[in-house]
Amino acid sequence: MLGHELRNRLGAIRTALQVIDHAGASPEEPARQRAIIERQMRHLAHLVDDLLDVSRVLSGRIELDARRIDLNEIARQSLLALRGDTRMQEHDVSLSVQAEPVEVLGDGTRLEQIVFNLLDNALKYTPAGGRVEMTVARDGGEGVIRVRDTGMGIAPEMLRHVFELFMRADAPLARSRGGLGLGLTLVHRLVELHGGRVSATSEGVGRGSEFVVSLPLIAPAAVAAGPAERVSVPPAPPRRVLVIEDNPDARNALRALLEVWGHQVEVAEDGPRGFEMALASPDVVVVDIALPGLDGYHVAHGLRTALGADTGLLVALTGRGQPDDRRRALEAGFDLHLVKPVDPQVLSEALARAPGRGTLHQP
Questions:
Q1: Is residue 107 classed as helix, strand or coil in its secondary structure?
Q2: Residue ranges per domain, the chain?
Q3: Structure letter (DSSP) for residue 291
Q4: Distance of CA 222 to the CA centre of its chain
Q5: pLDDT for position 1
Q6: What is the CA radius of gyration of the chain?
Q7: How far apart are CA 330 and CA 120, in angstroms?
Q8: Are 187 and 114 contacting, i.e. CB atoms less than 8 angstroms apart?
Q9: How far apart are CA 211 and CA 202, in angstroms?
Q10: Phi and psi (nearest 5°) for 284?
Q11: What distance in Å separates the CA atoms of residue 249 and residue 263, rounded to the nearest whole number?
């Protein structure tokens, strides 16, 4: 199943690249093919994340960063995470939240993952033109999130198995949408880690389904804080950027992107060379962690020791995304820890944080 999913995604990407390179393609075709590549890349990244998370959950290596969380905001953010998904335009998707905060003690990232997976599941198994409804409510001492759809439904004999690992409906729509059957297993385990419960109901095949997550409420805060507003960050002014990355394709692609944004970019392919170049104190140093010769942690620590306050913004851009990896990166001296594949908007916002060192004249 894993081989099938990977090869399908990679096959679509490879074919799209061939179409883009074809001289006879219409002017509009490259844009359509790039959209295909972007969608498949997101699917692959989501697949890798789910595989890693299932491994961590089953081995008991998930640690929650618990704090006061409003389920209304979790529902909104989870829906926003799907804003670029074409399925959102194919379905009637609605959200109903409470006027007052519905607060629980939980890990915001993991709670968003729970709701995102339930929404993704509803969209996956609901044909185009169907309806997906999400509601947030209070029920006694619990905060409740419901995700209801008008999709293919669940056979009675399957209901007891929907949260099992690698369980996937055997139907044409399910097969065409792909997936490994990991999402609902993650939902079940993460909800349990939060001291809650999740259930699934359906009136049968073709009659839709409903998933209900219930989490213990906590007492309201003395002064309820409103949801934080996302501040619009203008494009970063031109910066002097050093990229230290040993993978040639990743290095060249990132260099090209940064230059398109107007930055002056230098690159290094290993730790020792990157450290030497970074002593010239560029505005931003983007560093992979798994570097030959000198890893990214030692590069960051060495630069902080050698340059002190003159060190530019240090950004770890890495495939290592566990909480311990982030903690170790920050302890080594990095200002930011970004996980590959990075959202370009997140990277642009990071560059905007870098203190400029005077006017940069482009070559």
A1: coil
A2: 2-58, 67-216, 240-352
A3: -
A4: 33
A5: 66
A6: 23
A7: 32
A8: yes
A9: 9
A10: -135, 135
A11: 19
Using one digit for the tens of pLDDT, what is the confidence trace for 94-128? 999 999 999 999 999 889 989 999 998 999 889 98
Q: How confident is the model at residue 86 (pLDDT cuts 50, 70, 90)?
A: confident
Q: Is pLDDT larger for residue 76 or for residue 1?
A: 76
The amino acid at residue 193 is L
The model's confidence at residue 238, banded by pLDDT at 50, 70 and 90, is: confident
CA distance 44 to 206: 29
Unique residue bearing structure tokens 């001289």? 23
Average pLDDT over residues 60-78: 88
Higher-pLDDT residue of 227, 169: 169
C-alpha span between 114 and 188 (Å, rounded): 8
- Degrees (nearest 5) of the Cα angle 108, 112, 116? 175
Model confidence band, residue 233 (pLDDT cutoffs 50, 70, 90): very low
Burial 249-282 (b: 16+ CB within 10 A, else e): ebbeebbeebeebebbbbbbbbbebbbebbeeeb
Q: What is the token pair recorded at 303?
A: 């630069």
> Other C-beta atoms within 10 Å of 4: how many?
11
**12 to 1, 6, 319: CA distances (angstroms):** 17, 10, 23
Q: How far is CA 244 from CA 98, 168, 266, 314, in A?
A: 47, 41, 9, 11
Per-residue pLDDT for 326 more than 90?
Answer: no
Q: Residue 223 is encoded by which pair of tokens?
A: 């002064």
And the tokens for 117?
A: 């997976």
H or E element: which one contains 215?
Answer: strand 209-216
* pLDDT above 70 for 296: yes
Q: Which CATH superfamily is domain 67-216 in?
A: Histidine kinase-like ATPase, C-terminal domain (3.30.565.10)
Q: What is the CATH number of domain 240-352?
A: 3.40.50.2300
Q: What is the DSSP letter of 217?
A: B
**Side chain identity at 216, as an amino acid letter?**
P
**DSSP state, residue 33:** H
Output the average pLDDT for the chain: 83
Strand ranges of the sheet holding 209-216, from the earlier edge strand across to the other edge: 92-96, 131-139, 142-149, 209-216, 197-201
CA atoms within 13 A on the CB side of 358: 3
C-beta separation of 105 from 66 below 8 A: yes
